[in-house]
Write a structure and sequence with these properties.
Strand content of chain B: 15-25%
Largest sheet of chain B: 5 strands, mixed
Helix content of chain A: 25-40%
Order of helices and strands of chain B: EEHEEEHHHH
Strand order of the largest sheet of chain B: 2-1-5-3-4
Helix content of chain B: 25-40%
Distance between the termini of chain A: 60 Å
Oligomer: heterodimer
Distance between the termini of chain B: 54 Å
Structural class of chain A: alpha+beta
Strand order of the largest sheet of chain A: 3-8-1-16-13-14-15
Shape of chain A: globular
């Protein structure tokens, strides 16, 4: 094991001091001279034609400076549509609304109150249309169409929707011979699982400030996970060069979880900024708007058919996935692709067929949500894994160990060689850290059980990553990257990487906020890819500086480069350590007039040749997988159906924990989020497509009173390409929790819940039915 | 019709002419410029806007500025004294209790109110004290550890 000086150490976060003193700046803290405030008028119907829109009274309201409608903006910009891989969404609805909450018009006024009052003066006449509100209905022959035509959509290769249907994207993956796989099986298991819609609920609501400039460029300040993604979408939609769209992120973002990607939910600000005569305009979403108009997690129906040998070896699987993507594609087709490739689980299954449908409905738009389609399929395959283990009488950890992917195995969905597979170690650590049966007091009507689940997820490939590092004359450094600090701790680990490479003090290193005019390209802080891809670029940029310093140091110390070493900010001759010079002295001696030393780093992974040719839609393959296993202990109250989570053991293979304390923090937080997604949270839609629980009072996220004991354990199976061996983590923490809970409940009371969320009423009903069956 | 109010915020006196419907949260953020107090829901459910009013935690999004007339208010900006961090702030840094940081100011102030009233809280008492401050990042584990650690720090310092 290499001995690092800062990497791998539980160093306190570099941003913590600003955050505990109230000095940390988020977008809503920014004040601009001449700032206007925008408010958005939203659709009241799930599906309707806009017959007439009258904004004249709002325009005359004192204090209102501009009003924009979809039609006006669309006419001026030649019907711009936003989205990738499928541009299908207008900035504001034009002729038709497709979900409740869809933006129709925006008012800008000198303050929020006036803007809000003016919204009431806008008159909209609708003609209601029949709406389609679930995927099964949406796939029927006589269903209404959410989009009548796809002709004017801009589609990336392979992402064309199915004409005259609500199918936004269809994916099929095959390997081996599925029929043979089922013929050779001793047992066939067929189950249907469903998952529900949830909201990200970041503590900071979506917010942005936008300003058109006299040179026809636009600047947007937004807490966005993908400044370059937002830039690309606006540029493509408005047909203006990318360099004329500047996205600036704040120093800090109040939580993202996938919901703050590609300016989703914020595009109306572009339309109103175009009308304000170059005055900046700010839109802050209310918590209610946050619930109804920003992206949500795809609900899904997943049919699994698995063929299994007597000894527990899974040899075949058919999976049919139906994902509800809502009124517009957003990133739904990519989510479906990830779910389809991930639907085998981390298991060696030779004969497969996966069919995936991403389906339009007249509901809130589904997009990226921590785990990106994998929590849905993991819910299905890990629940079914326990059904199989139970039927065959095999221990639930043993059956997983028997089937898991090993180093060098070629995965049938990505056609890639699995590498750095720490999953076996994770499973064994879960076993070691779970309580023994019979521990704790047993009370009548309270049954205890244990459950385990595991999962895997790829970090997105291709991912280009650039970084600049600027070494200052005081041996401090600034890092220029387009990742964003949204709580995950990226600024801290990048400072650690630069401190490690240059052996300069960690506290003198800062990461600048992303700004598409200043910081170099990175696609997005999503997909758990920042550490692996951008971490590599940052490391290379620091090494570039180190190379330059070595060249100067060898002249100053009059020694060959090979004879020099750098430790603790000091260059010295290895054989004569007294011949030494500090980094700071090097800079001062060489450049008495002052200078910065600049380092560049690029890391790029794109294996075009290894695209699986049998995949009908182009799904980028991957370089890196993350693995995890979680164990859950529950106590079920059979009189009330309430489930108490006693303990969660979460073991994650991170490759290398650059900062173990931030890794642990991600695991603890992610597990509670996943637990809450599984048991407390559900966006409820009524029969008209309206979200009924659009407040934190009605949509519960956990408080401190809801937390169980969470034991976070790190496994480090180093990746050959990762910086110091590191992989990724943030999404994986939310993957196996739900099925582990369901498996524990089944262990406790023999009830198999196949539909999320696991609520007391659902469980109680199942318990009563079971007692009815057995005549108790 | 505006109202004239007198407030003490972080030990400093202010006399302000405010609209009767101005929220205390907006007064702090926009009139005084103390943006450490955060807006998360506007309905008193998330706790991001928590400040201490006469030492007790309140949701500043649910209180009118005029209701705070003649009161002492502590915001996150006033928690460190003379450039020295409060033991809770130190402990939040040391224990890794901070992630995105949006709930942190409110969380720290609720924790301060608890420790000011109860120097030796049990874990369940801590959970109850911060139950009104929602956090989506941390899972609360390290926040609770930090509050326990801060209570111990305060005790140790008092014994010295």
């Amino acid at each position: 094991m290499l001995n690092y000086f800062v990497v791998g150490k539980p160093i306190p976060r570099v941003d913590a001091i600003e955050k505990v003193t109230g000095k940390a700046i988020y977008i809503d803290d920014l004040m601009f001279p001449n700032l206007l405030y925008g408010k958005v008028l939203r659709s009241k119907f799930a599906h309707a034609k806009i017959l007439h829109l009258d904004t004249s009274k709002a325009e005359k309201f004192p204090g209102v400076k501009a009003v924009v409608t979809g039609k006006e903006f669309a006419t001026n910009f030649d019907n711009p549509l936003v989205g990738s891989p499928l541009a299908d969404q207008p900035f504001l609805a034009v002729e038709k609304v497709r979900y409740i909450g869809e933006p129709i018009a925006v008012v800008a006024a000198i303050n929020q109150e006036i803007a809000e009052d003016a919204l009431d003066l806008i008159r909209v006449e609708y003609e209601q249309l029949p709406a389609v509100l679930n995927v099964e209905d949406a796939l029927k022959n006589d269903r209404p169409l959410v989009h009548e035509s796809f002709n004017n959509f801009r589609c990336s290769p392979g992402f064309k929707p199915v004409e005259n249907s609500n199918i936004c994207c269809y994916i099929e993956i095959t390997n081996g011979n599925i029929e043979q796989g089922f013929r050779e099986a001793d047992f066939i298991f067929e189950d249907i699982f469903t998952t529900h819609s949830t909201q990200h609920v970041p503590m900071e609501c979506h917010v942005a400030i936008a300003q058109f400039n006299p040179d026809d460029s636009i600047t947007i300040w937004a807490p966005d996970q993908s400044p370059y993604g937002g830039q690309n979408l606006i540029s493509a939609a408005l047909k203006i060069p990318e360099s004329r769209v500047r996205i600036i992120t704040p120093p800090y973002i109040g939580g993202g979880f996938g919901g703050k990607l590609n300016l989703s939910g914020l595009m109306p600000i572009v339309a109103i900024a175009w009308k304000t005569n170059y005055r900046p305009v700010k839109i802050v979403l209310t918590r209610e708007e946050e619930f109804v108009s920003t992206t949500i997690r795809h609900s899904s129906i997943i049919k699994l058919k698995s063929g299994v040998k007597k000894d527990g070896t899974i040899i075949s699987r058919y999976a049919k996935l139906m994902f509800d993507t809502g009124a517009y594609a957003d990133i739904g087709p990519i989510v479906l692709g990830k779910a389809a490739t991930g639907s085998l689980g981390p298991y060696k299954i030779p004969h497969i067929k996966v069919e995936g449908y991403c389906v339009y409905t007249n509901k809130a738009i589904a997009g990226a949500y921590r785990g990106f389609g994998i929590p849905q399929v993991c819910w299905a395959y890990e629940s079914q894994m326990d059904i199989i283990a139970d039927k065959l009488g095999i221990n639930s950890i043993d059956i997983r160990l028997k089937n898991i992917v090993e180093e060098g195995y070629i995965t049938p969905t990505e056609k890639q060689e699995a590498h750095a597979v720490g999953l076996g170690k994770c499973l064994i650590k879960v076993r070691e850290n779970m309580s023994q049966k019979g521990e704790g007091k047993i009370i009548e009507n309270r049954k205890r059980g244990k459950g385990v689940a595991c999962g895997y997820k790829t970090a997105k490939t291709p991912s280009g990553a650039n970084a600049f590092v600027k070494l200052n004359s005081d041996a401090g450094a600034d890092i220029f990257v387009s990742s964003v600090e949204m709580g995950q701790g990226v600024n801290t680990i990048f400072a650690q990487i630069v401190a490690e490479e240059l052996s300069i003090p960690f506290n003198n290193i800062r990461v600048l906020p992303a700004d598409t005019n200043i910081t170099p390209f990175f696609p997005a802080s999503n997909a758990s890819r920042v550490t692996f891809y951008l971490g590599n670029a940052v490391k290379k940029a620091a090494q570039d500086i180190k190379e330059q310093l070595f060249k100067i140091a060898k002249d100053i110390l009059q020694a060959d480069k090979e004879d020099l070493a750098l430790e603790q900010g000091l260059f010295f001759v290895k054989k004569e350590p007294k011949r030494k010079v500090k980094i700071m002295e090097i800079m001062k001696k060489t450049y008495p007039g002052g200078i910065s030393i600049l380092g560049r780093g690029t890391y790029y992974q794109y294996k075009l040749g290894s695209f699986p040719s049998h995949v009908k839609v182009e799904i980028p393959t991957t370089e890196v997988w993350m693995y995890a296993s979680q164990g859950v202990e529950v106590e079920v109250d059979t009189e009330t159906g309430r489930v108490k989570i006693l303990k969660v053991v979460a073991v994650h293979d991170v490759g290398k924990a650059i900062n173990p304390i931030t890794c642990e923090g991600q695991i603890e937080g992610g597990v509670l989020m996943a637990l809450s997604n599984a048991m407390f949270e559900e966006l409820l839609f009524n029969e008209k497509g309206k979200i009924l629980n659009s407040s934190l009072l009605d949509y519960k996220i956990p408080s401190a009173l809801d937390m169980p004991e969470i034991k976070a354990i790190l496994v480090e199976e180093a990746h050959r390409e990762g910086p110091y061996g590191a992989k990724g983590l943030g999404e994986m923490v939310a993957v196996p929790t739900a099925p582990a809970i369901a498996n524990a409940i089944c262990d406790a009371v023999g009830i198999r819940i196949k539909d999320l969320p696991i609520t007391p009423d659902k469980l109680l009903r199942a318990l009563k039915n079971k007692c009815g069956d057995c005549g108790v | 019709m505006n109202c004239l109010i007198n407030l003490k915020i972080n030990g400093e006196s202010y006399q302000l002419n405010v609209k009767p419907n101005l929220l205390l949260l907006d007064l702090l953020r926009y009139d005084i410029g103390l943006t450490g107090t955060k807006r998360g829901c506007d309905t008193g459910e998330c706790g991001a806007c928590t400040v201490l009013l006469e030492g007790r935690p309140i949701n500043s999004c649910l209180m009118l500025a005029v209701e705070a007339n003649e009161k002492n208010i502590l915001t996150i900006e006033g928690m460190a004294k003379d450039g020295k961090l409060h033991p809770l702030q130190e402990a939040f840094i040391e224990k890794g209790a901070v992630q995105c940081g949006f709930c942190t100011p409110g969380m720290l102030l609720s924790a301060k109110a608890l420790l000011d009233a109860n120097s030796n809280p049990q874990e369940e008492e801590i959970k109850k004290a911060i139950a009104g401050n929602l956090c989506r990042c941390t899972g609360y584990t390290k926040i609770i550890k930090a509050i326990i650690s801060a209570a111990e720090k305060i005790k140790r310092r008092e014994q010295c």
